[in-house]
Amino acid sequence: MRRGDAGRRGRGCAFRGADVVFVAPVTSVTSVTSVTSVTSVTSVTSVAFVTSVTSVTSVTSVTPVASVPSVASARSVASALLALLFPLFVGIAFAPRALAQVPAVTPGPTAAPVAPSPPGLTAAPVAPPPPVVRAAPAAPTAPTAPAAQAAQAVTTLPASPAASSPPASSAPSAVIQVPADAPAPIAPIPDPVRLAPVEVPFVNPLWRAVDTPAKLLERPGPQELLVKTTIVLALKLSESGQVLEAQAVEPPLAGIGVQAVTQAARWTFEPAKKDNRPVATWNTFGFNIDVIVENGSFSTFGLVPVGKGDPLQTVWSEAKGDAWMVRYPREIHPPDTSVLSIEEVDVLPTPRKASWRYDDAKLRSRITAYVEVGPDGKVSRIVPTSPPNEGVIVEWVRRNASVWKFTPALAGGKPTASWLFLDASLEYEMTKARETAKRSFKKNLRASPKPFG
User: Within its chain, how far is the Cα of 204 from the centroid?
Assistant: First the structure.
């Protein structure tokens, strides 16, 4: 039935045309060659032959279908058409207003006519063209319950059991609309308030807030000191074992180091060996000696309380025995390609002629140290500071400071411990320096040491 012939009804009809607007109850449709669009069909009792139907908006019911080309079974075709078209008519019948708000179905490409299958043969199933869904131009108002069911019926069309999924490339692109009530984007969080750095005034950690500082009352003169120590030298030896250069390394007494360097020029050694061949090297060699110092006196003596803002002096590390040597690296520094490090040789040099002798001498040394005075008015600790001190002098001052007497510092009327800073120069005589043993070390000392800690 063409557009405008909506009143024609009968038991058997044949249609060939573009559009069918509305079909009231029809008992039988014998043949449909090509229908581009069917707007509404109330009832079709029987369809004998359908060549092509491009788009159907709503069909209430289709009872049987006699024959459809390229479909294996008429019953399956009837079920598929009923499943596809029945929800559309329900939406129109019960919610026409809501259907107007549902995205329209755009007709796809018209399928080519398919010849009827010969008797006894079953044709391969043909998938219906996928619907093209376009987003509505404006956001619809909230639908009522029947309208919501109609919208659900349109957007979730069930696929025919005989249909196959279309290729991914043929699926149309959906237009995504942002809801009007979508939340606003989150604004960036501003940087936190940054406080300007505050300069904290330096406070010497040894400073003590006292009412009255400690005061020295009595300081007897230094007593004679006998001490055992070791003098170590770095000697540059030739391949024949001659001493080319000598350096005293951290001498326990400056006067001893000077005399040892002077005497080293007359010493000779069996050379070091590498791969059974004599080689030049920086040798580490020393003596264990007994030293006596006496007739000492302080030429300068300063002992003052540690102030709150006084700079903190670097503490001179005191290592026991030979532990101080670990601060020196394996490599010679500054580099010297003419010799090997003593740590690289296979056989250490041995002395042929290397004797120690001493000459009486008047010497002078300086000491800087932190001195802690306890609540009892006695020296409890002496901590030497840099520049490097002489070990013998530090030991001498410690022994003599044990008899110094102080008035302790007072805080709140009670005696308390406090720190003082000592800077003094000591004159003395070295009257004995006797060698007790020779020592060789496989440790390079021709370099700059690393600080302790």
Answer: 36
